[in-house]
Each structure stands twice: as structure tokens, then as C-alpha cells.
Amino acid sequence: MKKENTKETFKVGDIVEVSPNLTLLKEWIKGKIIKIRQNTFIGTEIAIKDDQGRIFFGEKEFFKPIL
To answer: Which CA distances in Å does 29 have to 22, 42, 60, 64?
Structure first.
């Protein structure tokens, strides 16, 4: 299930959380946005790097800002 946050504005350098539906891990994980691009097929695609050096990327809907 996707998280509905299509109105959120993200920028490179922001700290965000990524959904377990994307990472296949048990919990939301925190990471820093390293790249944002427009993908012809899925729309806005975000890539993050976590504190362990892992990189995850996917549709904007799988990410939420840390307040």
C-alpha cells in the first residue's frame, strides 16, 4: 500500500523516511535524498542513502518527510 503524500515537496539533502513496502524491511528507515528525477513511467523518482550506505529508490509516494 502506497503512502499518499503527492503534495509533499522534496529536495536533495532532505532527510526522509522510506516505506517498508519499498525496502522490504520491517520498519520505515531514515535516509538523505541524493537524487530526484522525473521518470517517464512512474513520475517523480527519489533516491536516498541511509546511514549504513544502502541506497533505495522509488516513487515519491513511498517517502515521507521527517517533521
So the answer is: 10, 22, 15, 10
Q: What is the pLDDT of residues 22-60, one digit of tens each?
A: 999 999 999 999 999 999 999 999 999 999 999 999 999
d(CA 54, CA 1): 22
Cell readout for 51 is 546511514
Strand ranges of the sheet holding 29-39, from the earlier edge strand across to the other edge: 55-59, 43-50, 29-39, 15-18, 63-65
Eight-class DSSP state of 18: E
